[in-house]
Amino acid sequence: DSGVTQTPKHLITATGQRVTLRCSPRSGDLSVYWYQQSLDQGLQFLIQYYNGEERAKGNILERFSAQQFPDLHSELNLSSLELGDSALYFCASSVRDYTDTQYFGPGTRLTVL
Amino acid sequence: GDSVTQMEGPVTLSEEAFLTINCTYTATGYPSLFWYVQYPGEGLQLLLKATKADDKGSNKGFEATYRKETTSFHLEKGSVQVSDSAVYFCALSEGISGTYKYIFGTGTRLKVLA
User: Fold this and answer.
1) Which residue of A has its CA nearest to B104?
2) CA A54/CA A51 separation, integer angstroms
3) Among A48, B60, B72, B87, which one has the highest count of C-beta atoms within 10 angstroms of its own C-beta?
4) pLDDT band for position A40 (50/70/90)?
């Protein structure tokens, strides 16, 4: 158990819909990262928040957004969903910065029908 | 831009065989390098890491050395077990002048046969 929790575990929705994925980092970790894992794209970094502020942006679509709240939990919002958004979405957390180990949650499997 | 290239899988070995999974990288500065492992149905977990050139990371019999001259971070284990069957990801992270990057390789699936 990494100490990172993600909800829900599975999500099935239709094209055009909007969903919210939730992540609680390990106690004491200030950074939260979001990744998308799909068969054809591998593991892609989406976005990082550090202590409530956006720190780094990767291959995140404009239809996707995220935030980190004062209690340090984070949410990833995916809107206008397309079939190609079906993937496993991982959240990870670390103490501070890029030299630190990232601890991954169990993931949320999103299926868009 | 920055990138991580690791050998294609799957890699199939017999128990107690020697394992090497190659990983090379390109980076602008001096990244930190990681090997993560993913077991079926789980998230990734750190296997080992190295944060500067010539550092050797090691854990559970696995080793990798940060080679700046060859821009490589190859993963090795002297004697694999069936329980090592998993997907292995090489990754780099870098922060330069307030710009941060996190890049993972495509993963190498290892299957160890009894």
Assistant:
1) A43
2) 8
3) A48
4) confident
